[in-house]
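Forum: Protein Structure Q&A
Topic: Joint prediction for protein chains with partners

I've read a bunch of threads here and the consensus seems to be that you should model interacting components together rather than docking separate models afterwards. I'd like to see that in practice. Below is the full input, 552 residues plus whatever partners are listed. Could one of the regulars post the assembled result?
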Amino acid sequence: MFNFDLIQIEARWPVWVDQVMSARMRSPMSRRQMDWNHDDTFGSFIRKLEALGPLDDADRDAIRNLPFRRRTVAAQAYLVREGVASSECSVLLEGYACRNKTLSNGSRQIVSFHLPGDMLDVQQLVLPVADHNLQTITPSVVASIPIGDVRRIVRDHQTVALALWRDSLIDASIFREWVLNVGRRDAKARISHLLCEFAVRVATAGLGKPEKFHLPMTQEVIADATGLTSIHVNRVMALLRSDGLLSQQGKAVRIDDWPGLRAAADFDPLYLHVAA
Amino acid sequence: MFNFDLIQIEARWPVWVDQVMSARMRSPMSRRQMDWNHDDTFGSFIRKLEALGPLDDADRDAIRNLPFRRRTVAAQAYLVREGVASSECSVLLEGYACRNKTLSNGSRQIVSFHLPGDMLDVQQLVLPVADHNLQTITPSVVASIPIGDVRRIVRDHQTVALALWRDSLIDASIFREWVLNVGRRDAKARISHLLCEFAVRVATAGLGKPEKFHLPMTQEVIADATGLTSIHVNRVMALLRSDGLLSQQGKAVRIDDWPGLRAAADFDPLYLHVAA
DNA sequence: CGTAGGTTTGACTGATCTCAAGTTTGGTGG
DNA sequence: CCACCAAACTTGAGATCAGTCAAACCTACG
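Posted by a regular:
Agreed with the consensus. Here's the joint model:
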C-alpha cells in the first residue's frame, strides 16, 4: 500500500552515448587486454547467466558492450508500471526489488523478489505490455539497457537467449511455488518458507551465508508477499523466534535451527532449480 | 487429493515409427498438395503458436513432421510427476489438464489449467527436472513428442522458439495473477476470477463462447485451484447463482451477468496477453 | 531530540475450515 | 429400461486461524 513514484535518475544520457561509442570502438583484442574489474557493471549478471548455461567469449563481450544508463532509485520506487510498455530492460546492480500486483481496493500482493544480478524485466523483450509492477524495496542501483539492444543479443546469441529463457522458466517455477505457499500453507509455514527461499537465493547469488543474512524486508513487505497482514506477520515472527528457529537483530537474521525451519516450511529447494 | 496413476497408453510404438518415416519421406511439394485435415494432429497447437507470433511454411511443416505418439489417458492421470525428468513433450489434443503441487500433508494446490492445443511441458525443453505434477482433469488425448525433436525445432526455427518463449512468459503472467488471486482476494472474488479467466481462455482457444461454456472441473478441483475447501466452494457457487451472476446445468455454465461477475472478480484480462 | 516509519501488544470479529450428515447425479450392469 | 452405486454436491453446527481496530513502544535518522 505504498504510493511513491519517485525515480531519481542520475540524468547522464551524454555518458550513455559515450559508453556506446567507446564500447564499439574498442577492438576485441584491446578489450581482452583490459582489466575488466574497473567496468564490471554486468559482472553479477554475467555470473548469473553462466550458472544457467555456458557462455563463450563472444557472448560475454556482447553483454559487456551493451549500452546502458546507470540509475539510482529510492526505496519503494516503481521501475515498471502495470499496463505500460517499456523501452528498456533493467539489470539490478545493488539493492532489492519486488514484482507486485494490486487489487482495485488497493491491497498489494508481492509475487517475487529480485536480488542484485537479476535482469528485472526479461518479459518486456517478448511481451508488449507489463502486467505487473516492478518496485524497489530498498534504495537501489539499476542499469537500464535499451530494449532493442537486448533483443539484438537474443537474436544473435542463441546461448544467451537460452539462458534467459531458462531464467524466465525458473521464475515461473518460483511463482508456482508461491501459489502453493499462499494457497495451501498456514501463516507459520508461509513465512518460514519465504525465509528459507530467501536464504537459499541469497547464498546462491553469493551475497551471504544461508544461516545468517540481511533481510531487507519490513514486516509489511513480508505480509504482502505471503498474503497476510503485517500484524499477523509480527506475531508469527515472534513465534518463530520463541520456537528457537531463528533470531533477529535489526535487519540481520540468523537461522538457529535450519532443519526445524525447513520442516516448519515444508521447504524443498527443487523448484529453485539451482544446479546441485 | 487424488491418488490415481493410471496412464492408459495406446501402445503403438510401431505406428510412431511409421509416422516418423512417412513424414520424412514426403517431399515438401507433395505435402503441400495433400489435404492436411486428415492428419491435423497439431492443428490446434499450430493455431495457438501463430497467435503468439508469425510462422512461415517451413515452421509449420517442421511442426507437422514431428514424430509423436498419440496417447489416451484417463481422468486424474499423471502425465508428469514432480522430481522426474521426462524424455517427452506433450501437446494436449482433447480434454483438460492442470498443473499442481502438493504439500507433504497431502493437500493439493492447482497452479494452472490447460486447454486443447496447449503444449503441456515446454519447460522440460529447458529445465532438467519437473518441479510440479501435470495431471488430467478429464479423460484426454495427448500427443507425446520426443524431447530431442522439439529441441531441434527450437534450435533451427527461431520464430518457433520465440513463440514458445512468449507462451511460457504468458504462463508466468497467469501464475502471478493466481498468486494475487489466492493471496489477496476473498472466496467470492477468487472463484469469480477463476470463472472469468476460464471463460476468456475457452473463447480465445475457439472452444466455446465466453457467456456459455463447459466447465470441466468438479468443485473439489475449483477448491484446489483457489486454495479453498470444496465445501466453501459449494456455498460460494450457490451465492453466485443466487446473486444472478451465473446459472448452471450439470457441467454447463452460463454467465448471466458478465459485468457483475467481472466486478465481483476484479477481473482485468490484461495479464492473459491476448492480442486485442 | 523530535519525528516518522516500523514493531509490538491486546481485545474483539469474522471468514473459512472441520466434522458430520444427507441428497442428487451420472454412469454401469443386469 | 431400470436399479444400483460411487462420485459429486448440499446443508448445518461448531471451531479456529487470521483480520480489524486501537494504542503503545521502539529506533534510526535528520
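The first helix of chain A runs from residue 13 to 25.
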